[in-house]
Amino acid sequence: MRWGRVVLGVAAGIGVVAAVGWAALQRPDLPWSVLDAKYANAASRFMDLPGGLRIHYRDQGNPKGPAIVMVHGFAASLHAWEPWVARLGGDYRIVTLDLPGYGLTRAPATYQASLPGYADLVDQVAQNLKLGPYVIVGNSMGGGVAWELTLRHPDHVRGLVLVDSVGWPMGRPNANGPLIFKILANPIGRKLLRNVDTRPLVQSGLRAAYVDPALVTPALVDRYVDLSRAPGHRDIILKSRYSEAPGVTADTFKAIHTPTLVMHGEADALIPVAAGRALAGAIPGAKLITYPGVGHVPMEQTPDRSAADLRAFMRSLDAAPVGAVSGGQ
User: Fold this and answer.
1) Beta-strand (E) ranges in the chain?
2) Interval 125-179: pLDDT, tens
3) Domain segments of the chain as ranges
4) CATH code, 32-319
């Protein structure tokens, strides 16, 4: 009997400690005024679209140059493209944007995110800005948006660039991937992440993505964590699944006849380089460039080389006859 009371007392004590610890981990939404002050800049613009959407975008670089639209990956924001904007903006008009659920874009918490929906939204932004035919660039989840957009609006796209892109059917998730993606793959795990401090998980995930720990600065971690706490974002992100698109096969990519460049880090722990090679092999005429020792975000890890490769691709489009497909393995 005495031991029973002791066990009950210990259990109650553990329960109190767990409850207090859980309460200490809770993190409320951050107001837009705080996020805008910290993460918007002089180039930030907002576009109102149907459905209660207010899209944060930046239209930078040479306004008379060929247009490039860049789409970020899962949990990221348009900030990921700034290294390329700095290196390519003198020659090209570069539009970057935050997808609903990310960055400084406002969206209802009930927004239903999908690759087709994102693709149509990105093209709508491009049409509203009157870009004319543009090159679409996407990293990770944004790569899925980019190839989906190319299939849905081929007449609007003059070139496709896939940077460590999702899409190729890979079967089971990468067993060596970051813990946060394993938690997100579980419905219970997603619910637990809704209101807790995800900083340790975000930091470990970024280290896996960036490979070089020196690139994962406190400011970078702050940006990812802060922007995930924007009103409505967590509800949208935690119910989203983009690792694979249902019904996608090799034949899906054989239907792409737009000049295509596939870029992939050879040390990518999230999407293996084999997936990039398979994508390039399936898209007619696609050119493949891989980066030894580089992970999931070549535009940030090796900005000089990757920007030079994108510039060369852009020049190949200008040099190619109308309707020709450039590239080749």
Assistant:
1) 44-49, 53-61, 67-71, 93-97, 134-139, 157-163, 260-265, 287-291
2) 999 999 999 999 999 999 999 999 999 999 999 999 999 999 998 654 455 555 4
3) 32-319
4) 3.40.50.1820
